[in-house]
Amino acid sequence: MRFDIFTLFPQTFEGVFSVSIVKRAVESGLVSIAVHNIRDYATDKHHLTDDYPYGGGAGMVMKPEPIFAAVEAVLERPETTVFTSKEGKVPIILLSPQGRLFNQKVAEELAQHQRLALICGHYEGIDERVRQYLATDELSIGDYVLTGGEVAAMVVVDAVTRLIPGVLDASSTAEESHAAGLLEYPQYTRPPEFRGHAVPEILLSGHHGAIARWRRQEALRRTLLRRPDLLSRAKLTVEDRELLAHLGREAQAPDKGPLS
Ligand code: ADE
Asked: Residues lining ligand 1, CB < 6 A?
């Protein structure tokens, strides 16, 4: 996977991709990340990348010309032609609070591509023609407004990178939160007792079947309590539904004790 990030603040990305899993993915050649300074593509004397909004109003708006020039140069996309590169159609993603909401499903969808271009908006906004005639997708990482799309681009690169085959063990992504539409079950490591708080006995039992059932039950419990909205979209078995009904009754009558 190749990521091309277009930003007015390339220095923001220094360091974030040189630690942990993303660093290893880059070192092993599974991922490459190039950060491009939009300002380098401004052709006027002062290298202007923003201007006053037509119609008036507060703040500045990012100009279209340097953004189009940067993306077209890097993706070798001749002006006004429909873009197909040797990697296939490269999604050109604008990060903005107005985009569709980024989640694990979108991360999985993006991980299927061989190359992604990410444009980081900044200031009060970006000229609408970038959204209309350059970007092929627009993503928001949540219903809040950041000072720019840089942090959002980091989130997308991180979440997509860990889904690329070979970056992590398949088993570690299969069971984690959101992979199957549920939050992940609680995890413990040694010591078996810490400050009087013991690890659930079943995890020390060595009974793999019983442990798998306990984990499923706790994933369902946690999702029901914290993110019940996820349950309507999760893949649930008949047994899961029975467990959920039981957990629901238990929540209404907590003195009945935990599930066996
Ligand atoms: N830029 C500013 N806010 C944003 C958000 N919530 N998601 C993506 N990009 C943004």
From this structure: 95-97, 121, 140-142, 144-146, 148-149, 152
